[in-house]
């Protein structure tokens, strides 16, 4: 537990760089776009940015396929751009955390290219998972593992002699070969990457697939019913116990920079297994994704929160809360879309921001953006192709942010050809309009973030559940005493006693209507 650390009650804002703001008119967002809009983030009141990958990449998975982890891709503005962003953000009191991708590299990474060229049985292949195929001519992959994006997790290579040869493992896209963390170069190089960015003033890292990396030695088959974009705790592709030694190694490096934070993407459901990642010598924070998986339903919300609190208690860690990200559909749509979806999303934002711990807001959440139904021909997520067009993938929640004006591209770019098309009906949702309107979703977010930060009622690290009418939830912050009530039922409920600080929508005859939350002191 680190109650004094800056990140222990921070509001992180996730910038998906492709979609945030485009400074150079190529239709893709970039780092100078972030720089140009730091005022928006300062107004919103966030403590830190989590920047999705901006390092050198062929962009097969939009940056999660890293070809050089210690340089910035020209698409995002190169090294000079991040060297402008870091001090500018710091001047405004905003920390910068970067995404790092230790589980795999890009197939364009020099190590992988060298491995292909060197051929079977060579030292160069040891940095990845190269295996011979099964069957008489090795025409079957080494095991039945599937890629998270669909299809086999193995791709067969053409050997230097021109013949089909070994297979390599990729838990994600073909262009994302898994690294073999048993090879000492892999950790050494990762350490270099961590120090490289920490020396340049970065305040911490979001660690991609933090429960991946280690694989069981014999690579045993998985169960047959593995679904695209999800996996269970007993899936041999993830959460192998030797991953913890890797996290201890990472922590030893990061501990040389006392204010730096690590946030692991840990898709592990079992609390005991999940908590192992939060041991004092492993990660500082671990994402808990339960709130992204549930309906707007009192029992489910309470269960998700209670479960997260119990999970962090095991290692006396700090909780994290998130309603959506670049992988998971936006909550406005998940909660039913339209006005109802937005009302519920605002109510859930109040639930999340009333809780102790670190909160992650995904860019566009503060504007109440919904998912976008995109036509087939514009889809880019590898999941669409790899699933044989059965899973549309994650593009729906990655559409660029509307900044200003009345028509696409809404100030996101000077080019009308944005990398994903923007819906014309977002004219009412632009940052410009919402900043000027005290009743907007943005003004609401700004207000609740400010209250959370300024009011002593939000101090303390526990919560107590209070009696609530059916369909509603009420909890109180242990310590500060702030009370949060949320009505997920069908009828208005009386407000609990206390001074009303804010509600996510108007009260009705002094009562809290359905799909609405309130904070009381
Ligand atoms: O996601 C890892 C991951 O496991 C997810 O694909 C997850 O299974 C799914 O989204 C659940 O809905 C990370 C990144 O967040 C994602 O964007 C990358 O595509 C992936 O790693 C590969 O680097």
UniProtKB/TrEMBL annotation:
Matching InterPro entries: GH, GH13_cat_dom, O16G_dom_2
Coiled-coil portions: none
GO MF annotations in UniProt: alpha-amylase activity; isomerase activity; oligo-1,6-glucosidase activity
Keywords of this entry: Glycoprotein, Glycosidase, Hydrolase, Isomerase
EC number(s) on file: 3.2.1.10
Record domain Glycosyl hydrolase family 13 catalytic: where: 14-398
Top-rank lineage group of the source organism: Bacteria
GO annotation terms (biological process): oligosaccharide catabolic process
Membrane-traversing stretches: none
Protein family per UniProt: Belongs to the glycosyl hydrolase 13 family.
Name of protein: Alpha amylase, catalytic domain protein
Source organism phylogeny: Bacteria, Bacillati, Actinomycetota, Actinomycetes, Mycobacteriales
Encoding gene (name): malL
């Amino acid at each position: 537990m680190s109650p004094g650390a800056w990140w222990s009650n921070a509001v992180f804002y996730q910038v998906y760089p492709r979609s945030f703001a485009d400074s150079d008119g190529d239709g893709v967002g970039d780092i100078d776009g972030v720089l140009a809009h730091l005022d928006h983030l300062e107004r919103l009141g966030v403590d830190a940015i989590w920047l999705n990958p901006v390092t050198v990449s062929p962009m097969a998975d939009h940056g999660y396929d890293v070809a050089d982890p210690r340089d910035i891709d020209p698409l995002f503005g190169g090294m000079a751009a991040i060297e402008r962003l870091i001090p500018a953000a710091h001047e405004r009191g905003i920390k910068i955390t970067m995404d790092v991708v230790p589980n795999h590299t890009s197939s364009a990474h020099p190590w992988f290219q060298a491995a292909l060229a060197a051929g079977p049985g060579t030292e160069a292949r040891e940095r990845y998972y190269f295996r011979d195929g099964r069957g008489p001519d090795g025409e079957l992959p080494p095991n039945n593992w599937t890629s998270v994006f669909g299809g086999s997790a193995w791709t067969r290579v053409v050997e230097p002699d021109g013949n089909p040869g070994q297979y390599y493992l990729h838990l994600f896209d073909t262009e994302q070969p898994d690294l073999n963390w048993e090879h000492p170069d892999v950790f050494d190089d990762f350490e270099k990457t961590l120090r490289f960015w920490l020396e340049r003033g970065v305040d911490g890292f979001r660690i991609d697939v933090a429960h991946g990396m280690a694989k069981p030695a014999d690579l045993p088959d998985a169960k047959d019913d593995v679904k695209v974009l999800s996996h269970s705790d007993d899936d041999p592709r993830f959460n192998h116990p030797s991953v913890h030694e890797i996290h201890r190694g990472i922590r030893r490096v990061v501990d040389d920079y006392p204010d730096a934070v690590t946030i692991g993407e840990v898709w592990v459901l079992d609390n005991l297994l999940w908590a192992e990642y939060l041991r004092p010598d492993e990660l500082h924070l671990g994402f808990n994704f339960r709130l992204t998986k549930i309906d707007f339903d009192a029992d489910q919300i309470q269960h998700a929160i209670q479960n997260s609190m119990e999970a962090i208690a095991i290692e006396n860690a700090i909780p994290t809360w998130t309603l959506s990200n670049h992988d998971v559909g936006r909550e406005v749509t998940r909660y039913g879309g339209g006005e109802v979806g937005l009302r519920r999303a605002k109510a859930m934002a109040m639930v999340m921001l009333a809780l102790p711990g670190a909160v992650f807001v995904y860019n566009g959440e503060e504007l109440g953006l919904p998912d976008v139904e995109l036509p087939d021909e514009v889809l880019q997520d590898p999941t669409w192709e790899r699933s044989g067009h059965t899973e549309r993938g994650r593009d729906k929640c990655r559409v660029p942010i509307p900044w200003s004006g009345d028509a696409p591209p809404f100030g996101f770019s000077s080019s009308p050809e944005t990398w994903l098309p923007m819906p014309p009906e977002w004219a009412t949702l632009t940052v410009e309009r919402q900043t000027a309107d005290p009743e907007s979703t943005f003004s609401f977010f700004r207000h609740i973030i400010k209250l959370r930060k300024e009011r002593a009622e939000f101090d303390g690290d526990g919560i107590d559940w209070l009696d609530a009418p059916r369909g509603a939830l009420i909890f109180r912050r242990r310590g500060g005493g702030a009370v949060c009530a949320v009505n997920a039922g069908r009828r208005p409920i009386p407000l609990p006693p206390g001074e009303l600080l804010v509600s996510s929508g108007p009260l009705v005859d002094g009562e809290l209507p359905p799909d609405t939350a309130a904070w009381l002191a």
